[in-house]
Amino acid sequence: MEQFQIETAQNITIDQNTSNLGERMLAYIIDSFIIVVYIILMLVLLVSLNIDPADQWAFYLILGIPPFLYYVLLETLTNGKTIGKGIMSLRVVMLDGSKPTFANYFIRWVLRIIDVTLTSGGGAVLTILIRGKGQRIGDIAAGTTVISEKKRIALSDTLLRELPLDYKPQFPQVTVFKDSEIQTIKELYDKSKIKGDHNIILSLDKRIKEVTGIQTNLNPIDFVDVVLKDYNYYTQKM
Question: Same structural domain for residues 30 and 142?
Fold first, then answer.
């Protein structure tokens, strides 16, 4: 899954995950299956109605509109999603993260003729691999991409701390905390280290000692780090 940065109108930079080829292909297969099922049901219905052959063309025309406009209609009406994209947690967005207009969806839809129909999907696959940012030809022309809304969780986002096999905890008192409290401590601690905000770490050091009654000569930054590791050690052993 490729990650790229978008910058909003407020000059805020956001990391965004593009969908990968596997996800997009699965979404396409799901959407194609739905369209095929619709067409089959439509044909069965027309046969069962015994419509006069002279009038059949009108029914075919009317009932054929939904599958023909499937992508552009659903993406416009459901904020960048088709049924397949919804199941795969994908969405069409502008490169700056904003919501596309109908014109953007329409351009993507028209160029599906090149991306998918005429090249059997080869044009889309090749362009996505070469271009990056999850863009096929239609996306490049429309200024859009397809993102994944699945939340990626890294080890640094969880309570877990990597501990050596021979790790020896120092403060069993840390088990008085709840997971939510330790998560808050961890988030404050990590952000403070990145920003160099020593005052926050001093406040954490003081508060942890007040709650647990721990007395130690460790400096605040090392003490909070040990508390987080000890909590992980004890909770993983429970």
Answer: yes
Of the listed ranges 93-97, 206-210, 214-218, the one predicted with least confidence: 93-97
**Closest of 99, 113, 111 to residue 144, by C-alpha:** 99
Residue-level pLDDT at 70: 95
Of all residues in the chain, what percent are helix, strand and coil, respectively (each to 5)? 60, 10, 30
What average pLDDT does range 73-85 have in this prediction? 95
Same domain as 137, residue 223: no
Range of 187's domain?
Answer: 155-237
Question: Cα(140)–Cα(31) distance, rounded to whole angstroms?
Answer: 22
Nearest CA to 89 out of 80, 101, 77, 100 is that of 80
Q: Let me know: does 229 contact 160? Beta carbons within 8 Å.
A: no
Q: Based on the structure, what is the number of domains in the chain?
A: 2
What is the pLDDT, as a whole number, of residue 8? 46
